[in-house]
Request: fold
Amino acid sequence: MQKSKILITAAGSIGERHIRNLWQLGFRDLVVFRTRNLPFRDLGEAQVQVVLDWQEAINAGADAAFVTSPTHLHMEQTLACLNAGMHVFVEKPIAHNLNQKAELYAALEASKKVLQVGYMLEFHPFLREMKSYCTKSIFGRLISAESYWGDYLPNWHPWEDYKTSYAALEQMGGGVALTLSHELDTVLWLVNELPQKHFTLKSTHPVLPIEADNLTEVIMQFKDSSIARVHMNYVEKNPSRRTVLLFEKGRLTFEYFENTLKIEDFNQDTVEIKTCPEFDRNDLFVSEAEHFLERIKNKDVGADAGLERAFEIVKICTENE
Reply:
């Protein structure tokens, strides 16, 4: 795999991160598509070939592509790369609407390639531990799930005007619901099913005047009557991020920024708090890239549950628009 040529479709902050990680993993033939040949901010030791023409990038002979462009380009570029014979890792969300969902499934089936959507929290060790509590019913039946992420958009990229960033612009697929949709994926991945009912309330609060939604609340109900709530906002100056699972016999609370997992056993009347001092956030991005490359190696092609969840997330985020 390390001799493969890989196309990266943009070099914003997430594109540069994937470039650095691919270089760390031993990949030396990296092609980057850019509309302008501006200086890179941070490629580390990585060296890349820059291509300014999209068709030239598609015809560069890459074996795989990392689609790291703004959201509104994800579907278009994913289809182009699949149709050109590349395996594709596409950053979340997979699209900003469902207009080309059927076309993507058809292209994936015809190409016999691997497609993976970049929800890297699935690789967090504490969330994986929470997943085991769900799959093994360690605390009995799940009653409710809650995921909360409040952050402050102006602090994300100090080098750019947040009001003109893709995350703030509706026509570029921005808005807090799609941009912070990691939390929706986390809940659906933990529960391991799609909701039977859901309601999405999106708002643009005047405290942060942007074009797209900056405050979103999602309520979901599953077939066993369990309920999930997901909150996402761009307006919280002191960031907060957590996931809580309530079971019949216990409760799990994952605090992302504190990097703790609280395990409450109602039957034993015990509380355990775990920490992960060696954790590095970039490990999540490395792990998801390694998983993608391992799927290619193992010929694990076609659609999987991750793709089904990814489209469900787009539906949840956009159906009331």
